[in-house]
Inverse folding.
């Protein structure tokens, strides 16, 4: 696919995203044009490429400003990204309390990612008081809307019986759905359930998938967990997880 852009032409967000994959630098110019013309999706997308340095020089403070512009016009994901910026100190001083405020606005507007992010703060007491019941309710809402990461954490609450009665059957179902939805932590959780049931071949298959998608911190922790597994085939995955973690640490 080839894109020809005239100065007066403002592309749709779908065209802009497609252009990003083909020619990030040209896409960035088109996104700047569309954002300047007031296209709210382009304004949110401009914030993201500025944050990532994708096709344009990375500028976290400017990303924060564009997220703020789009969020002020009601863009839910831009509001969520304001929360992310404040949580992690991207373009501003880290402030988990302000992050929670932004997440709450987007969560109340129905955004699953914001529900998940706010629930994480509530579960760990960052910027807000620990509230496992509210965290559980948010994870459940996000999970029921199809958010794979929330499915895994809902499964954990149900498995451990935290802020709710323990329900291992329901936990297993949510772990499976999370795994099938592509979340590497959900894949690892479901593998643990399968291993406990003696379904080792299936467990190893899901561990393989989690290995491919997992990030550095996950792989480091998971490798230590796998070392204590009862089955030697699962124990053997620990070395592969650590090797992959070493590869990622060298490229970080």
């Amino acid at each position: 696919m080839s894109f020809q852009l005239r100065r007066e032409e403002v592309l749709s967000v779908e065209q802009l995203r497609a252009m990003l994959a083909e020619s990030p630098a040209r896409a960035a110019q088109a996104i700047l044009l569309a954002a300047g013309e007031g296209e709210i999706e382009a304004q949110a997308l401009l914030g993201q490429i500025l944050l990532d340095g994708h096709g344009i020089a990375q500028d976290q403070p400017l990303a924060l400003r564009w997220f703020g512009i789009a969020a002020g016009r009601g863009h839910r994901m831009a509001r969520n990204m304001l929360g992310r910026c404040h949580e992690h100190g991207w373009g501003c001083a880290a402030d988990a309390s302000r992050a929670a405020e932004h997440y709450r606005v987007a969560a109340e507007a129905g955004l699953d990612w914001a529900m998940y992010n706010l629930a994480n703060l509530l579960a760990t007491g960052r910027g807000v008081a620990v509230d496992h019941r509210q965290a559980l309710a948010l994870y459940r809402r996000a999970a029921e809307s199809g958010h794979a990461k929330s499915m895994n954490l809902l499964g954990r609450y149900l498995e451990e019986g935290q802020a709710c009665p323990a329900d291992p059957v329901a936990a297993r179902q949510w772990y499976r759905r999370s795994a099938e939805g592509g979340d590497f932590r959900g894949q690892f959780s479901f593998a643990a359930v399968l291993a406990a049931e003696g379904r080792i071949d299936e467990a190893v298959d899901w561990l393989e998938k989690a290995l491919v998608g997992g990030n550095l911190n996950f792989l480091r922790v998971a490798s230590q967990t796998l070392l204590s597994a009862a089955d030697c085939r699962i124990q053997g995955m620990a070395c592969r997880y650590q090797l992959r973690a070493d590869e990622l640490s060298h490229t970080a």
